[in-house]
Amino acid sequence: MRLPPLNALRAFEAAARHNGYIAAAEELCVTRGAVSRHIKLLEEHLGVALFHRNHRGVDLTAAGRQLLPVLTEAFARIAREAEQISAMTRDVRIICPPALSIRWLLPRLEQFQAAHPDIRVRLTTEFYSAKGFDGTEYDLGVSVEHVPGRSAEIASMPLFPMVLAPACSPRLLSQQRLTSPAELARMVLLHETPQRRDWAYWLSHFGVQGVDASSGPTFPNLDMAARAAVMGSGVVMADLALCHEELRAGTLVLPFPEMTCVTPQGGYVMIGRRDRWDKPHLRAFRDWATSTCADLAPNLGA
């Protein structure tokens, strides 16, 4: 016997399970009329009525009651098998802001691909939209820890802290001979974003007076601001974890190494939908990400 149309079977199963067309239409993202047409097509195909129509809605006929559990189990089994198969091959869709992508994720991503050649990483390097992390578009994201209004349905995992301190090129420091934070008033302050929150927070945290936190050029992200600082263009508010390569190489130095502070935003975390958090391919990526962070945790007393 020729199989009935799949869409008609889905429409009947949903309508029977919900005991109505309206809820079935909402689940399937179609109109009530579309559900009705699919069910009529299925009844014509089978040559038997599946519902009794009445003023209260619909009730299953004997044939409908016989067919419903078969379809429910069949669709559930298809979903289970598809989930298991896709878990082995599904892409990891991840969103990560530009500076984090350039300075942490991208340089290490080849290691993950070598260890997991069956998992493809689809990286989007951009800032989050106003609505925040979109769990329908991305599997995982890298973000700051404290975000107002973040849904309880979003799980998170710590990566590494965000610790701030002023940094500049060694040549600029030797020329300017900064001996106290107040002397930053005569320096060019480099800002990682147009909002200029980085310098304002650090100066406020340490009670530094007389330094205009709104002065100096802005950049689209920390990577560009740090590169400008290496060139001697001014003093950047360095994220010690993301600038660790320059600090280790000596192309950036800290004029006030004892004056570091954590931010109100907290550290960096990996986030994702709680109902997908433990999918094998996503767990593999999360475990790998955690393993790459050991050398990024700055010494707060440095």
UniProtKB/TrEMBL annotation:
**Pfam families (alphabetical):** HTH_1 (PF00126), LysR_substrate (PF03466)
The yes or no answer to whether the keyword Transcription is present is yes
Regions annotated as coiled coil? none
What keywords sit in the KW lines? Answer: DNA-binding, Transcription, Transcription regulation
Per its UniProt entry, which superkingdom is the organism in? Bacteria
InterPro entries documented for this protein: LysR-type_TF_proteobact-type, LysR_HTH_N, LysR_subst-bd, WH-like_DNA-bd_sf, WH_DNA-bd_sf
Q: Where is the HTH lysR-type domain?
A: 4-61
> What family is it from?
Belongs to the LysR transcriptional regulatory family.
**What is the protein's name according to its record?**
LysR substrate-binding domain-containing protein
Per the UniProt record, the source organism is Ruegeria aquimaris
Q: What is the lineage of its organism?
A: Bacteria, Pseudomonadati, Pseudomonadota, Alphaproteobacteria, Rhodobacterales
